[in-house]
Structure formats: C-alpha cells, structure tokens
Design brief:
The complex is a heterodimer of chains A (270) and B (278). Chain A is of the alpha/beta class. Chain A has 8 helices and 9 strands. Chain B is an all-alpha fold and 278 residues long. The longest helix of chain B has 38 residues. The chains are: A alpha/beta (270), B mainly alpha (278).
C-alpha cells in the first residue's frame, strides 16, 4: 500500500473506486476519489442523494472494502484503525438500545470493545461524555423518554466514549427538525473545539456544511467523485454571528451553484 | 460553559400512572360487561320462550347449575388440562426459541431447515393426535407433544422476526468495535427480540389450550376435553357448556399470566391493549 502522506493527513484516499455487480451489471458507486483530511479538521462531504458520500464514509469506517485504490486512516488501514478504536461512528438513526438507559447506551460499545476495562469504568467515562453533550440529567432515561435530538446526543456521547481520534458522522441531524438541528450544530462545534477530534460529516445541508467545516468537499454524480473542495475561512469561534458574515453567504452561493451543476450533469445525456 | 439543549424539559412519553390506568381499564370494561349481560339475558329468554330442549341448547342458568353441581370434577379436570397446557407451552417456548436462535446464528442451517418448518406447518396438526396417542399412550406425553407441534411455530416465527429486526446501523456499530457474532446475537438481537417473542407467546398460549383439548379428544381418561366428550355422549349438554366455560377461563388465565410476564420481561416495550392510547 502506498503511503498517503501519513504525517500531514489523518484520513486519506487515493484513486479510490467502489463498484458493485448488481444483477450481472457492473455499477460504479465511487471513482477516482482522492482526499486528504488533516488532523483536527472538520470536513463536510456534501452532494446529491445517491452520490456515494455515505459509501465513502463507510470505507473510512472499514465497513466497505474499496474495489481499487488505497485508503489510510491515521496511517493504517481502516480495519486496523477500527481495531485500535481510532474511529467513532454516528448515523442518522441514533440506533439506541430501547432497554438500556442513556448511560447504558453511551457505555455499551466501550463495554464490548474493551472487556478488560470493566463495566464501572466504562460507565464513568460514558457519564463524562453525557455531560459533554449536555445530557447530565438524562443518564437514567430510557430512549423512548428522550426527544429525537437527545437520542442523537446519546449516540454522539456513545461514539465519544470510545475516545476515537476520528468521528465519522453520516447525516447525524438529518432526522431532526430545523431548530433542534441548529442547536445540535452549535453543540457539535463546541464538542469539536474541546475534544480536538477530526470530524468527517456527511450532510445535505449547505448551511450546516459552511457553518461547521474547515473544508467542504462537493461530490458529483456519474462518475461519483469529488468535484470541488472549498476551504471555509470564516473566523472562529463560529455561531449565530457567522451567518451575518458576508463570506458566509458567498460560500453558500458557491456551494449551491456547484451542487446545481452536479445535478445538471446527471440530467444531460452525456 | 455547558452545551445543554435550550428546552430543559425531558420529553417523557412513558406509561401513565397505574392508578389512572386502573380507572381507565374499568371504564373501558363497562361496554364489554354490559354486552355480556345483555347477551346472557337474551339467550335465557330465547330458550325459555321458545321451549328449547336443554339437551340441544341449555339456558345460562342450566349451565350455571351444572357448573355448581360438578364444581369438584370440573376443577380436577381443569388441573389436568392446565398441567398439559403449562408443560406443552414450556416445551414449545424452549424449542421455538432455540430453533430461532440456531436459524439466525447458523445461516446455512436456517436455509436448510426453514422451508421444512414451513412445510410442516401446513400439515393439519389435529390429524396427528391419533398417531401421537398410538405412539405415546393415553397419558401426558401425547398431549404435550401435540401442543408442541401446534404452538412452537408462532414462537419461532416471532422470535425470528424480532432477531432480524435489529437495525443494520446498529450491527455496523457492533462490527466497528470488533464485536463477535455471539455478542451481537446475545447482547443485541435477543433482548431486541423479546417484545416480539412475547407477542408470539400470547398467540401460542391460546394454541396450547386448543392442543390440549384436541389431544384429550383423541384419547384421554381425564381433563376438560375428556369431560366434554364424555358429557356429550351422555347428552349432558349443560355439562358440555360448563366445561367449555372452564376451558375458556383456563385460556384467559394463561393469556393474562403471559401479559403480566411481558410487563416484567419487557418493561420498555410499547403496550398494546386493543385500543389507541391517544
């Protein structure tokens, strides 16, 4: 495997391709994807539905083997990175166990991952993370007693409990209402600033991508690849004030244009 | 600095207070009780006015009289049947759950055995009763086995559905922390399947009562099925109906015990009592 500038990049992909054979037909999901994500970066992947953003995330998570190309996560293969617990995952569904409390859910993956740690230590760590995501008082609640946003906070706490270097988030706020979504974005920024994790966020929201990211990768359809990378050079800390920055609107407009272009690309015959 | 969500309230959608629920239950039962009383009175009137022979259809009062007169015999018979139901159900539960676990854990075995289970399910089990009597005699064993073949299927089917219903995302999370297949099965899939299993148990428990009665019809020297058959050959129709009342009481009893168990085993599951909780 060719080294992917291990020192500079925390996550890297070179000439990555994913193809499936469905009913005897070869289907290319990703092609020629090259990506370097620096340590401590907050990177968004944005693109039309079905453009392969989630697939790319799953490759980094070691859940899908690439058909061609190389992938490096913290200098090793995704599978190795998973074994070393360098990667934490958050999906659109909170995926909480309905019979476990918020605390039990937050501690669960760590209990599975590290049996030598013991249940008590795992729960202590999980309790700290529940604090961090703003769920101090909800540790003993069952998932059905929590709102959608709080369930997603538990899912984030569960990923953080593993203390990964990298947080991979696949449309984590996709199922939430607009206001909750914005609250969650601000929380996520604070979590990122405090924990210094590298975060890769798959999102549909242009607004969210600009507000949160240091860098936005726009993915296009057919062939699915990264069509453009935008640096977001808005000042930190970001928050409600960031929306008033003229550069915010400009970046949004630029992203929207790129996304429209990639949609148009799909409609035209060739 | 805290990152607490702005609304400080926890959305609590848990069950209502037990006192309120008891009151609700009582109010909901009123229509059922009223309908039952009305039906019994109408039945009694039709029999009396129409001078229907008690050998054909006995009046509710005649059935009540028979119930009181044969209370001891019916109680003994109910114990025999209840024992068969209990043992048959326990066996069905063990076999049904074990089968579902093996099918999910060992996919090749599942692929091999599942079509056979479905095929077996199409066999009318009632037809097996005489064969079981022939093989295992007149005692407990043929009844328990008949119950098993009738009742394991809904248990297996529901357990399977529950085991498979775990979100793929959660399985991916488990794989991402290096969980073994056994861990995924026993720490995630099995607890996840419990509400579904309990739904299967409630279906199976009524099948168990049917199985016991059919088994006793085919050949027995005790039990409610035996009483029904014996009484009908003697044209003691009120006793037939009295035994039927006891059979349904046994069935209802088992059903509510299973519902009570459900509350202990899966307290997190949403409740279903035939009415909307809006």
């Amino acid at each position: 495997m060719a080294p992917v500038r291990a020192a500079a990049s925390h996550l890297g992909a070179r000439d990555l391709a994913i193809a499936y054979t469905v009913h005897g037909r070869r289907q290319t999901v990703l092609q020629d994807v090259g990506l370097d994500i620096a340590r401590g970066a907050f990177v968004s992947l944005i693109g039309a539905s079905g453009c392969g953003k989630s697939t790319l995330l799953k490759v980094f998570a070691g859940l899908i083997q690439p058909t061609a190309g190389t992938v490096a996560v913290a200098g090793v293969s995704p599978q190795e990175a998973v074994r070393k617990r360098l990667v934490g995952l958050v999906f659109q569904d909170a995926n909480l166990l309905p019979w476990k409390t918020a605390l039990g859910n937050a501690a669960f993956l760590l209990e599975i991952a590290d049996k030598s740690l013991g249940r008590k230590a795992a729960r202590e760590r999980a309790a700290e993370m529940l604090d961090l995501v703003g769920l101090r008082g909800a540790a003993d609640k069952l998932p059905r007693q929590l709102s959608g946003g709080m369930q997603q906070r538990v899912a984030i706490a569960r990923a953080l409990t593993l203390d990964p270097e990298i947080l991979l988030m696949d449309e984590p706020f996709g199922a939430l209402d607009a206001i909750t979504r914005e609250e969650m974005s601000h929380s996520l920024l604070e979590i990122w600033e405090r924990t210094k994790k590298t975060i890769v966020l798959v999102t549909h929201s242009i607004n969210e991508a600009v507000l949160l990211s240091t860098e936005v990768h726009v993915m296009g359809l057919r062939p699915a690849r990264i069509v453009e990378t935008l640096k977001v050079e808005l000042p930190w800390p970001r928050g409600a004030d960031s929306f008033r920055d003229p550069r915010f609107g400009a970046l949004e407009a630029q992203l929207r244009a790129l996304l429209l272009e990639s949609h148009g690309h799909r409609r035209s015959p060739s | 600095m805290s990152i607490a969500p702005s609304g400080g309230e926890w959305t609590d959608v848990g069950p209502q207070g037990s006192l309120a629920r008891t009151g609700l239950w009582f109010r909901r039962s009123v229509p059922t009780l009223a309908l039952t009383v009305f039906a019994l009175v109408a039945w009694e009137l039709v029999i009396r006015i129409g001078h229907v022979s008690t050998y054909i259809v006995p009046a509710p009062t005649a059935i009540a009289h028979s119930l009181a007169a044969n209370a001891n015999d019916l109680w003994q018979a109910a114990l025999v049947t209840a024992r068969e139901v209990f043992l048959g159900f326990a066996l069905s539960l063990v076999v049904g759950v074990a089968l579902a676990l093996v099918i999910v854990r060992f996919r090749w075995f599942g692929r091999a055995v599942y079509p056979l289970i479905v095929l077996f399910q199409t066999v009318p089990k009632v037809a097996l009763a005489p064969i079981f009597i022939l093989w295992f005699g007149y005692d407990l064993a043929p009844k328990v086995l008949l119950i098993l073949v009738i009742a394991f299927f809904p248990i297996t089917l529901n357990m399977l559905a529950g085991l498979e219903a775990v979100e793929r995302g959660f399985v991916a999370l488990m794989h991402s922390v290096g969980a073994s297949e056994n861990e995924i099965l026993f720490r995630v899939r099995v607890p996840h399947a419990l509400p579904q299993l309990m739904a299967g148990v409630k279906i199976a428990i009524t099948f168990c009562v049917i199985g016991a009665i059919v088994g006793e019809f085919a050949g027995a020297s005790a039990g409610l099925g035996y009483v029904i058959q014996f009484a009908s050959t003697q044209l003691e129709t009120p006793l037939v109906f009295a035994a039927l009342v006891v059979v349904s009481l046994v069935g209802v009893g088992f059903y509510y015990v299973s519902e009570l168990l459900e509350r202990f085993i899966v307290p997190w599951a949403p409740e279903f009592d035939g009415t909307d909780r809006t």
